[in-house]
Amino acid sequence: MRLLFRQRFFSWFDSYDIYDEEGNVLYVVKGQPSWGHCLKIYDAGGCEVGTVKEKVLTFLPKFELYLGDDYVGSISKEFTLLRPKYNIDCNGWHVEGDFLEWDYSVIGADGSLVAEISKQVLNWTDTYVIDVARPEDELCTLMFVLAVDAEKCS
Fold it and tell me: Are 77 and 95 a contacting pair, CB within 8 Å?
């Protein structure tokens, strides 16, 4: 399953639209005024389905993930010199990225590929292509991409 993730060009807070391959809106993400990033995820019907919230006053960026009101895990950046690395405390996943932080692979606890994320560089706004192996991992993968994008803006 492929998701196309585009940041809106004009918005006061982070706002994104997430499409399927046919151009149908699957999710809308709206930034909320808060201390640190707080991104609310809504499905196509306008119901809130998830939240990505930045923890403030941490040495390295850390984000908490919520499905509805339920805490499901966190994502934090590790200190590395050349290759960005993130810890995901969610589903036993781990993530590896390239030097420019534009391409990532999310690997499951069993070593299988959960998703591949790539950034398209020649666009006016942040645009990502997210290839998810299983539809049930779609929302958690989206939350990861939102956290990484917000971390780069911090």
Answer: no
